[in-house]
Protein: Phytochrome-like protein cph2
Organism: Andreesenia angusta
Amino acid sequence: SSKDNGKNRFTFCSLEMKHETLEKVKLTNSLYRALERDELALHYQPQIDIRSGKLVGLEALIRWTHPEHGIVSPGVFIPLAEQTGLINAIGEWVIATACRQGAYWHKRGLEGVRMAVNLSVEQFKSSSFSDRIESILLDTGMSPELLELEVTESIALDDSYDVVNTLEKLRESNIMVAIDDFGTEYSSLSRIKLLPADRIKIDRQFVESLAVDKRDRAVVRAIIELARNLDFKVIAEGVETEEQVEFLKSQNCDEIQGYYYCRPLPPEELEKSEIFNH
Ligand code: C2E
Ligand code: MG
Ligand code: MG
Ligand code: MG
């Protein structure tokens, strides 16, 4: 009967949910150990000055090689780390590792190239966050003016954890702030001028259909114009084609990042790449 079917369906769903929860618990447990077992790594993706074609920045992107599952995407485990509070330990490891790598590369001749790291809102909940960053800079020898912190609009404008003050304080020590995935959240235009930021990153979703969608061209053009008038630098992310590069160049976008130039690479591979040795 239909009643039985309904019941079966319900049982099936709840079993599936239990299974999912169990998987989550297992993954969380292994994530706890991932840090100690050295399963986390940073890959770095070049950011290019659109006029000169020169390397101007590197974005650190975390990778986890799970002993059984292989590579787990940050899109999967970062939310998990955020839910469990593990993001604080992981986030600190990310900042320290990226700063150590940046300082090393700067000494080896990669002068003036920024190092960008992604942050989660949870990291701002600790009142000592900015002090921790300062001490990492000291420990690693990384120059503050070459460190960039990437946050989303909703983080940058979050009212609950003093985020704006923390970001302003960090900017006073010459650390830069970039607004990631710009344009994808529902923050009102009236608040854009309040962003405590140096740079805006145009989200990949707008860049993706530049060649085919006139409306996306209009949006990208408007973001670049708005950013310029508000004194923000602009970088486009997810750039994959020559056509996209040409359009962004014609609109005076400052920088680009994407597979067109280079995928995120482990340090030893990046060091061998053409862009790195240009
Ligand atoms: P995001 O910061 O917006 O990073 C950009 C994502 O786009 C990266 O995915 C990158 O590999 C990918 N990408 C770059 N160029 C292209 C392109 O031309 N085409 C396409 N299709 N994709 C491109 P990834 O590495 O999987 O990272 C996903 C997200 O995970 C990041 O988005 C960021 O929000 C988060 N994430 C990564 N590393 C960290 C970290 O260390 N800490 C925190 N809190 N979040 C991180
Ligand atoms: Mg980012
Ligand atoms: Mg992004
Ligand atoms: Mg993103």
Q: What stands out?
A: The chain has eleven helices and nine strands.
